[in-house]
Design a protein that fits this description.
By secondary structure, the chain is mainly alpha-helical. The protein has 10 helices and no strands. The chain has helices at about 5-10, 15-20, 20-35, 40-55, 55-70, 75-80, 90-105, 105-110, 115-125, 125-150. Helix 4 (about 40-55) crosses helix 10. The chain is globular and about 45 Å long. The N and C termini lie far apart (about 35 Å).
Length: about 160
């Protein structure tokens, strides 16, 4: 495939927000409902980890920038991908959320192990755990939208 073919293929992908505005607005509403009441730092950690696992450069760029703007440290941002080896950078709640994010994002590999779910349930009340799960569902959906439509990292169009 030539470079022109690649560039042409990238520019022919649809603009999901314009092509399916009702669906796009519903996703925005779902995302907003999922994150409501959750610690913003936890929200970004979950979104960053899922985006790593899904290889979504567009979302990873967006959420690492959002995390920085919210005051997240560079050290912690660098450690998200290897959090198991750098647990001291993260609270027990964050570790439980990251483990749950991995299990749900990679659900086809091994399901959601009981131990991972139990760890999360021990750290979050039922309502908050439901919010965390919903946020994981939402970021996985956004990753798939960005990957399927070939969104380019660094071109965040949010107002």
């Amino acid at each position: 495939m030539t470079t022109n073919t690649i560039a042409s293929a990238e520019t022919t992908r649809l603009n999901f927000a314009k092509a399916a505005p009702k669906v796009f607005r519903a996703l925005i509403g779902f995302d907003a409902a999922a994150r409501a009441g959750l610690d913003p730092a936890l929200v970004e950690l979950i979104q960053i980890r899922a985006s790593h696992l899904n290889h979504c450069a567009y979302c990873l760029h967006m959420h690492t920038n959002d995390a920085r703007k919210a005051g997240e440290s560079e050290d912690r941002l660098h450690m998200v991908a290897v959090w198991r080896e750098a647990r001291h950078f993260f609270t027990e709640r964050e570790q439980a959320a990251l483990a749950l994010t991995e299990a749900v994002t990679l659900v086809a590999d091994a399901g959601v192990p009981d131990a991972v779910y139990a760890q999360a349930a021990a750290q979050f009340g039922e309502e908050e755990l439901a919010q965390v799960l919903a946020l994981i569902f939402a970021i996985n959906t956004w990753n798939r939208v960005a990957l399927a439509t070939k969104k380019v990292a660094g071109t965040d169009e949010r107002a």
